[in-house]
Prior knowledge:
Largest sheet: 4 strands, antiparallel
Oligomer: single chain
Number of strands: 11
Order of helices and strands: EHHEEEEHEEEEEEHH
Helix content: 40-55%
Amino acid sequence: MISVDTLLTQAATALVDPLFVRWQKQELLYYLNEALNAVITYKPSAVVARANIEARGNPVALPDDAHMLLSVEQIGAVRGQFTPMETLNRFYPDWRTSQGQPKCWTKAADELTWFWLYPTPDKATVIDVKYSQLLTATEGGELRMAITYSGMLLDFMLYRAFSKDAENASEAQKAATHYQVFNAALTGKATTDRVKQQALKQAAME
């Protein structure tokens, strides 16, 4: 968990504005929420939520706080099995109108917050899903994400804060430096996480 107040204090200290005069708390909160959106957009697995959804038809929509679907874990009593939509279109052209007990799920690449079941459930079916969750920072609150992201969020906040006086070459340089650090940390962590996932998959196969 990451404390929002701690991030605000750290940003104010770095900006030499401990009383939040030049950069008020609401402004820094706005920057923090921009940082959260940037992190979650680039690395959806940064914040993972799980939910049970009662499906009565197609398509099945994710909760309002969803950024995108990560996986379908369970469809009723069976394991969630993904089938490419192209496969269904080719071998089961009437799959969108078929009804019964769902056996698999599918989605198009641009369908981020909903998916389809095949066959379409003929009765209420509970679907267990994992999805990337959007977060909103509020004063006094906490962010449900790993503490390792706190430095990235702070660097993005400082990038936006120093950009406020970007007409000053010194401030513009500070902004650029913090953005470069943020970007390097985010892309580096994403690469590291992919390597770890590949290593785990390889170990499981051996």
